[in-house]
Design brief:
It contains twelve helices and 26 strands. It is an alpha+beta fold. The strands form seven sheets. It has a six-stranded antiparallel barrel with strand order 4-7-11-10-9-13. A six-stranded mixed β-sheet has the order 21-22-23-24-26-25, with helices on both faces. Strands 14-15-20-19 form a four-stranded antiparallel β-sheet.
Length: about 500
């Protein structure tokens, strides 16, 4: 284009701290117009975002103060129930308490709830609020702990809800089931990590969602494929053993005496919840879990990576998602089998190895043929030398595979001492490669290959450079090759 957009000027200024005036000055020096009006528009949009952020921050502060003043009690019954009837105690709309609402987003607090609030890496439950007539009056989209510990439901209100009324609270049970499988699997993985890597591998954060689990842990150094296979196998063996998952409510000291592992970043009161899997994995955890490890079905590690100094991350799937992953990989293997013409999946590896070997042999043969062709071309082009300004020059367009073969031709030219200067051009897939080479005597006379290549490269829409004895360039205009070779002769005539 001919205009530097306001968006680009703004990015240079906002992201990289590059002064606007300097950007515009450089652009104009290069013959570009500048969209200053567009830049001002982007600046105004940023100012508006800043004003909006300040407003949101103030609003959150007001709401936080409001929630801190709410002292009603709210009990969680979701360990044992996926639904319950409960009185609506509090309705918060924006920055104020209201007693009734007919639409929009709001936060609700009930006397008791089966909805799990997001904690300890486990995402919140979602579901529905149903009135006495059996109609859904609100969708629950999120649940968080309020400052005083109540379970605060963020909802989309569909029809009238009133403070003091009793409603039926129903969680999305299939979604919860997928979450609890992943949560119990993180406990099994944590223990498996310690068995494979050592006791230093401690949890450093996690995410337990319906579709996958993410587990961060402390460990210096890489993790091998064999170690990942061992961890995955240990977790699946515990699933196949069908071990009951017991949850016990006790005091913190008793829990520690049981050998329960405390999780990273969690604050524990006097009363704690211990999740015990066959006295093998024992952890303090307030989350929801399966009743038996066999409910998890299957566990599959998807990826492992480093996310910081001494912290690694494993992502994995269970149950339906694990089956879908394995099915997808099996289909990919079948596709590969069809490509390599392997009638049976078990023969795919050996068939692929055979093809690899054939490919290597063909590549070797191809290299030999290309080298022969290059030598043949060398014999042809090295015959055509011209004398210009008392110096000999060879210019030619050749058909070789790449720049490397151009350099091989230049090496042959050097060994045979055929002319003072060599200029070669090659076109491959619409891209141009240029090479210029000079003898030591030419360099001593003040001529440099780099100067020559810079003079001719613009003819093929490119640029380049190099040493005094050899330089190369690339371009995007193959039609300009004859002009580039002519320009080389003209350059020499002017020296």
């Amino acid at each position: 284009g001919t205009t530097l957009s306001g968006k680009d000027i703004f990015k240079l200024y906002d992201t990289y701290g590059f002064p606007v005036e300097l950007t515009e000055e450089v652009a104009e020096d290069e013959g570009l117009k500048v969209d200053h009006a567009g830049f001002e528009k982007e600046m105004e949009a940023q100012r508006e975002r800043a004003r909006s952020a300040r407003s949101t921050e103030k609003s959150m502060g007001v709401q936080s103060a409001l929630l801190t003043d709410i002292k009603v009690e709210s009990k969680f019954v979701g360990y044992d129930h996926i639904e319950s009837n409960s009185e609506l105690l509090v309705i918060v709309k924006g920055e104020e308490l209201v007693s009734e609402l007919t639409e929009g987003e709001a936060q609700l607090i009930f006397a008791e709830t089966p909805f799990y609030a997001e904690m300890g890496g486990q995402v919140a439950d979602t579901g529905w609020i149903i009135d006495a007539s059996g109609d859904i009056v609100a969708n629950v989209v999120d649940v968080q702990k309020a400052p005083n510990g109540q379970f605060m439901h963020t909802v989309e209100v569909l029809s009238t809800i009133k403070e003091g009324q009793v409603y039926h609270l129903l969680i999305d049970a299939p979604r919860r089931n997928r979450i609890i499988k992943n949560h119990t699997a993180t406990h099994l993985l944590h223990k498996a990590l310690k068995e494979v890597l050592g006791e230093h591998a401690n949890q450093a954060g996690s995410l337990v969602a319906p579709g996958h689990l993410r587990f961060d842990f402390t460990h210096f150094g890489q993790i091998t494929t064999d170690e990942l296979i061992k961890m995955e196998k240990i977790v699946n063996e515990k699933i196949w053993e069908a071990i009951p998952v017991e949850t016990i409510e006790t005091d913190i000291d008793t829990a520690k005496n049981m050998g329960a592992m405390a999780l990273f970043g969690e604050k524990y009161g006097r009363e704690v919840r211990v999740v015990n899997v066959g006295n093998w994995s024992i952890e303090l955890c307030g989350g929801t879990h399966v009743a038996n490890t066999e409910n998890i079905g299957i566990f599959k590690i998807v990826s492992e990576s480093g996310i910081g100094a001494g912290v690694r991350r494993i992502e994995a799937v269970t149950s339906k998602e694990a089956y879908e992953l394995l099915e997808e990989e099996e289909q990919q293997l079948k596709d590969v089998a069809a490509i390599v013409k392997s009638p049976q999946l078990k023969e795919v590896v050996s068939k692929t190895e055979q093809l690899q070997q054939q490919l290597k042999e063909l590549q070797k043969e191809n290299e030999q043929l290309a080298s022969k062709l290059a030598n043949q071309q060398a014999g042809d082009i090295f015959k055509n030398s011209e004398t210009i300004n008392g110096k000999t020059i060879i210019t030619a367009q050749v058909k070789v595979k790449d720049m490397n073969q151009l350099r091989q031709l230049a090496d042959q030219w050097k060994q045979k001492a055929i002319s003072d200067i060599l200029v070669l051009a090659n076109e491959q897939d619409g891209k141009v490669s240029l090479l210029a080479a000079m003898t030591k005597e030419m360099n001593e006379a003040g001529l440099k290959a780099g100067d020559l290549i810079k003079a001719i490269a613009p003819k093929v829409g490119g640029g380049g450079g190099g040493r005094p004895d050899m330089a190369q360039a690339g371009g995007k205009n193959p039609a300009g090759i004859p002009d580039a070779l002519s320009e080389a002769k003209a350059w020499l005539a002017n020296q």
